[in-house]
Each structure stands twice: as C-alpha cells, then as structure tokens.
Amino acid sequence: MIEVTNIYKSYGTSNNRLKVLNDISLKVESGDFVVILGASGSGKSTLLNVISGLERPDSGSIKYDDKEITSLSDGELTKLRRDEVGFIFQQYYLLPNMNVEKNVRMGADLAGNKDYKQIIKAVGLEDKQKQLPSELSGGEQQRVSIARALAKKPKVLFLDEPTGALDEKTGREILDYIDKLHKEFKFTIIMVTHNQNIAEMANTIIKMNSGKISEISNNQYQKSAYEIGW
Q1: pTM to 2 decimals?
Q2: DSSP code of 211?
Q3: How big is the chain by its Cα radius of gyration, in Å?
Q4: pLDDT band for position 14 (50/70/90)?
Q5: Which site from 13, 87, 107, 173 is most exposed, i.e. has the minimal number of CB atoms within 10 Å?
Q6: Rounded distance, CA 46 to CA 52, Å?
Q7: Strand runs (DSSP E) across the chain, as ranges?
C-alpha cells in the first residue's frame, strides 16, 4: 500500500513561490488501478512525480508499505525507483541506437529478469525485436516503453499521459495491453491523464483542482479499453 499524508510542494524562490500541491492525502491499495484527473496546472503530474520519488515534497509523508520514502537519501531513492517502480511517459525515451530487444533488456537487467522476452511477446512485438525505434510506429514505440518498464517487475507502475501522443486506435490498443498486463501481473497502476473516459477503466479515480484533491471515487465496474468513449 502507498500512503500519502499532508503533502505540500512548491516551486520558485522564497519571494515568488508557486504552490502546486496543497495538503494532499490519499491511500492506494496494492494491485489497485488509479487514475488521476485534472485540468492542466491542477498538480496531477507533480503529484505523480512526488509519489514515485522523482521529486521530493516540501513537507509531508509518503510510505510504501511501512517504508517512509521522504526520508531516504538520494541513493536510497534511486534504488527504490530501480527496484520497485516502473515509469511510462507520453514521450517514449527509447535509446535510438538499440533495437527493441536491447531497450527492453535494459529494464530487465536492473531486476535480474531473465524472462523479459515474455514481456516483449505480451505486448505484441515478438517479430520486431531486432528493429530500431526509428523503424517502429508511435504505438509500437510506446509498447516498447511498456515492455521495458514491466521487464523490471515493478510493484508500482506510474504512467503520465501514456496515450497523449497517440491516435484513438493506437491509444486503445496501448490501454488494452496495459490493462491485460495489470490483470496478469497484479502490479499497482497510478496513471495521470486528461482523458476522463480512461477513468472508467480504473478502480479508483482521483480528481484534482488547483493543487488539491477535489474528489475520490470508485468504479463498481471497470470498462475495457474498447468500451470507453474517446
């Protein structure tokens, strides 16, 4: 479980501080599928970065089970992100001089995972393992980034607008892969998106406004990627 308590986060100088997160508290159960919604500037991506350990809050507490991560050193935070966390962003961040298999193996090597080719197969890229990112479509590149993140066998997968650069057909395919892999491997998902329809796939929906949580709700029925609107 992830437990976030009274988190504050600001940017800027002491004379010109912009408060981005204002007293955020929430709990995420292990294996949950959480979607964070909010307008641009609502603080949702900053919240994702803080919970995942990419950024430090100004104050407050973040616990992974019983581990308080806000008190970890930079080296300990790096180890946490390496061992327990996976990231998928709108940008793919693939190494252009490495083929699909080598990009995914980079993630697998961090966890000592020898079975990473099963992940490549699971995202439908078994026949493209030797191709470079430049030889793939946008959707295929995003699938490589998904495979690379999951090859680490993370406990928590953080996603920031993973379909933002994709057309509807490809976006649905990507969401379908993520959903199926989530059901198979039972990791926790925390996803930031501006697409409110995607929230219908989640167990838990967190709505943000002006740096605060305005609403937390749950879906009794989770729709598939092909049932939601776009």
Answers
A1: 0.91
A2: T
A3: 17
A4: confident
A5: 13
A6: 10
A7: 2-13, 16-28, 33-37, 59-64, 67-68, 85-89, 156-160, 188-192, 204-209, 212-218
Q: Is 144 helix (H, G, I), strand (E, B) or coil?
A: helix
Alpha-carbon separation of residue 96 from 99, 131, 132, 174, 227 (angstroms): 8, 10, 7, 21, 35
| pLDDT tens-digit readout, 37-91 | 998 889 999 999 999 999 999 999 999 998 999 999 999 999 899 889 999 988 8
Tokens of 198: 């995607």
Cα 64 to Cα 67: distance, rounded to the nearest angstrom: 5
CA angle, corner 98, sides to 95 and 102, nearest 5? 105
Please say if the pLDDT value at position 117 is more than 80: yes
Q: pLDDT tens digit string along 187-219?
A: 999 999 988 999 999 999 999 999 999 999 999
Alpha carbon distance 102, 225 (integer Å): 29
Q: What gap in Å lies between CA 4 and CA 68, rounded to an integer?
A: 10
CA distances to 5, 69, 166 from 26, rounded to whole Å, are 7, 15, 30
Q: Which two tokens stand for residue 137?
A: 């479509």
What's the rounded Cα separation, in Å, for the pair 140 and 127? 12
User: Can you list the alpha helix ranges (DSSP code H) found in 112-214?
Assistant: 116-122, 138-150, 168-185
| Phi, then psi, of 222 in degrees rounded to 5 | -95, 120
Distance CA 145, CA 151 (A): 10
